[in-house]
UniProtKB/TrEMBL annotation, chains A, B:
EC category name: ligase
Gene3D superfamilies found in the cross-reference section: Anticodon-binding domain, Bira Bifunctional Protein, Domain 2, C-terminal domain of ProRS
Documented EC number(s): 6.1.1.15
Protein name: proline--tRNA ligase
Entry keyword Methyltransferase: no
Matching NCBIfam families: proS_fam_I
Catalysis: reaction(s): tRNA(Pro) + L-proline + ATP = L-prolyl-tRNA(Pro) + AMP + diphosphate
Residue intervals of the Aminoacyl-transfer RNA synthetases class-II family profile domain: 39-287
Naturally occurring in which organism (per UniProt): Sphagnum jensenii
Highest rank taxon of the organism: Eukaryota
Pfam families: HGTP_anticodon, ProRS-C_1, tRNA-synt_2b
Length: 489, 489
């Protein structure tokens, strides 16, 4: 087994050695994704896509519970639409992909592949919304978007990615604000409860606010290399797009008003976040709730006469776990040794492995190995094979692993956020690769200076703030809030 | 009520009067879709999208049951890929949309928005497939595709549409053929069992075969105006793409072989097919299994003191039906009269309406109206309101409506297919607006002539063939098969 482990490690650079190379190796070895023929594009392979499908189904159910309907807007947007909202065009025009030829002919107006859909949504909302009775209008779409990024990385930043984008219109600014907050909390719940990814929820600085929004809320996660990942955002758009597109309604008094809007999105980037939060030197490590395979069953025998009994037991175990909704895989290939299989499924991040050998069959037990605790410590022998007790044991163990991963990631994060009082302390924290949290009352120019000098940006002003106000770490002005600074993806 | 019905009809042109206008009116009035700002593009609105979501979830489950995994390929394809398979480029190049500018710069090579993904799929399969152990490779993706069509119609033919495309690779031609057949039968099952849409399953003529395929199987449905709609296709690709892209595997003897492939797709066009199969003068008529709302409950009261009792009863009825998984809507708005609501939900095609008035409450009964049988005949009074009996009654009634719609559509279709023995008879049938079924052994040129002279094409050679061979209706040669000719969408 040791030998094979070594062989396998040739495939995946240890995380501790080179995080960036480890990430790309894991994506390749675990067959999560591959590079498309066009620079910066990505193929999401079945194992990676299954994680995305889980994210989709969880979010989709939540969106519906909170009153949103799915629909679909075309991805082709007239170029002129993008120009209607001033800060929107400024933010997105460098990243646009343009269709200029259709059906063999030059088009009169270039068409944009949606980088996001606020413009076309407003073009339609303006036609559909007449009166206050049509509000709130709460919709979502699952779609691909295109942004011509120069530096790409699978899942984290690609020319084309998959996401959902919610778009809503309301009668009052209070309702829009409530909606924007509600949806960032949906993302927060997903990250913490399902992806075991502790995140800081907060407000973006003005410089980092979505192009066209009044205010952007974000969830920020710390990856294994301590860089921050923006994992989901929710925007209060105010009336910016409504005014640009004339999205108006008649209120109860019969007067025309502009609607108040929000938009919010989570993307396939989340898959990258899960990989980089939990993975270790061995490879991928998936939280049970999002794992496409939660349990792998490996039957082990040496002599031919042992095979039948072991295989029968393995099938019963698989059946027992499947019947209670556990996603289980039987690896019964005879072309690979058990040791090779152990390493393979560890690299693929499957949370639990069940081993069944002839002696286990004789004793009516199985061996259970936890992916998150390496070696003997994570292995339990003599777990009852009987249906009821086994089901209960595995369910409990999956829950334990889920919680344990969240705790581990939370501890890691907490030990890597430093509270800073001065710009010197901030520089020190960032130079150490950590996050810096400190009072901030600086201008956009101050923020830009920090970025230039340290490479760190304001990730957010966290919703959870210390009780007292302080002195800004850079300007020495009175600061009503602390901000978190970090290098980010 | 009569008056309001009349008002409502102002919105929807009767189907019997102008089918094409009726179709567009229904899509507008029922809020199924709207026109995008770019010519030929469509917004799928929540009510239409909910039908698509049902199609997705049904097919997705079937694809997984039959061993396919979902994944995602980029939509941007290098132009050179399209040119690699000779008949593919011939078929698709007139319909391509090209991205020529990205991130503000002219691209060196134009990129194609996928019109279908065989080329990029093979580019990747060639990298992933090494040995016979990697086969069969069975994948599917849910995606948008772009085809620069000149004549568009919502759902039926749009510049961009949503679909799934399955792509598989196999060791032998027999396996590929079996797969292509299996998947056309999945589409067949969906059409008949879920959409209550009788379809003819068959093989396309060479002229109508997918660009790059060896053989195309199709399901062909008859719309309410008797035009044919190709509602799903499955292609046996042979080794055409494998040879163009070098998609090879090492067989058990260690020799390099090209894979045998299939691809198959069903799209948002199916939503158009459902509308045009079942709709009537009143508007949309949805088969219960695909209806986003299966039952609408309309509480009716005149005096304020009646409201509480009626509303309480309506809520109980809604709860009882929801609890057994029926998709039910309570329409309790006070801004509209019951008569207006009846007409509105009839136009929206909801299969069952339940009316509850004060007298019903007193007698512990409800009134049930079937959408598919207009007027008093479709109305049943005194249906027990008690939970168990009501649940049973509604379940049974939904099933009855489902079956009844399938029978009605089947009868309509059968009475509109004429068996023809000569070209004159064929011309007569087509001139009458019907489908013609007759023995065919003509060439591509003969087929083209029929199209020129009658406007009809060979929809398919049905799998169900008459027992004896006949004389070709056009060439008088011996024909081993009958073909179906029709005008189509």
């Amino acid at each position: 087994m040791r030998k094979q482990k070594k062989e396998k490690n040739l495939g995946v650079t240890p995380r501790s050695q080179d995080f960036s190379k480890w990430y790309l190796d894991v994506i390749d070895a675990a067959e999560l994704a591959d590079y498309g023929p066009v620079r910066g594009t990505m193929i999401i392979r079945p194992y990676g896509y299954a994680i995305w499908e889980f994210i989709q189904s969880w979010l989709d159910a939540k969106f519906k519970e909170t009153g949103h309907s799915n629909m679909y807007f075309p991805q082709l947007i007239p170029y002129s639409f993008i120009e209607k909202e001033a800060s929107h065009v400024e933010g997105f025009s460098p990243e646009l992909a343009l269709v200029t030829v259709g059906g063999g002919k030059e088009l009169e107006e270039s068409l944009v592949l949606r980088p996001t859909s606020e413009t076309i949504v407003n073009h339609m909302f303006a036609q559909w919304i007449q009166s206050y009775r049509d509000l709130p209008l709460l919709v979502n779409q699952w779609a691909n978007v295109t942004r011509w990024e120069m530096r790409t990385r699978p899942f984290v930043r690609t020319l084309e990615f998959l996401w959902q984008e919610g778009h809503t219109a309301h009668c009052t600014p209070e309702e829009a604000e409530e909606e924007a907050m509600k949806m960032i909390h949906v993302y927060h719940s997903f990250a913490v409860e399902e992806a075991a990814m502790p995140v800081v929820v907060g407000r973006k600085s003005r410089a980092e606010t979505f192009a066209g929004a009044v205010c952007t809320y974000t969830i920020e996660a710390m990856m294994g290399d301590r860089r921050a990942l923006q994992a989901g955002t929710s925007h209060n758009l105010g009336q910016n797009f409504a005014r640009a597109f004339g999205t108006q309604y008649t209120d109860e008094k019969g007067e025309l008003q502009f609607v108040w809007q929000t938009s919010w999105g989570m993307s396939t980037r989340m898959v990258g976040g899960i990989i980089m939060t939990h993975g270790d030197d061995t490879g991928l490590l998936l939280p049970p709730r999002v794992a496409p395979i939660q349990v792998v069953v490996v039957p082990i025998w040496k002599k031919d006469e042992q095979k039948e009994g072991v295989m029968a037991a393995a099938s019963r175990v698989v059946g027992a776990l499947k019947s209670i909704g556990i996603r289980v895989k039987l690896d019964a290939t005879e072309q690979k040794t058990p040791g090779w299989k152990f390493n393979f499924w560890e690299m693929k991040g499957v949370p639990i492995r069940i081993e069944i050998g002839p002696r286990d069959v004789a004793e009516n037990v199985v061996v259970v190995a936890r992916r998150d605790i390496p070696g003997k410590e994570g292995k339990e022998f003599g777990v009852p094979m009987e249906e009821g007790p086994l089901q209960e044991y595995v369910m409990k163990k999956l829950e334990e692993i889920q919680q344990s991963l969240l705790e581990r990631a939370t501890t890691f994060r907490e030990s890597n956020i430093l509270d800073v009082k001065s710009y010197e302390e901030l520089k020190g924290a960032i130079a150490e690769g950590k996050w810096a949290r400190g009072p901030w009352a600086g201008t956009d120019a101050d923020e830009a200076q920090v970025k230039d000098e340290t490479g760190a940006t304001i990730r957010c002003f966290p919703f959870e703030q210390p009780p007292h106000s302080h002195v800004c770490l850079k300007t020495s002005k009175q600061a009503s809030e602390v901000a978190i600074f970090a290098k980010s993806y």
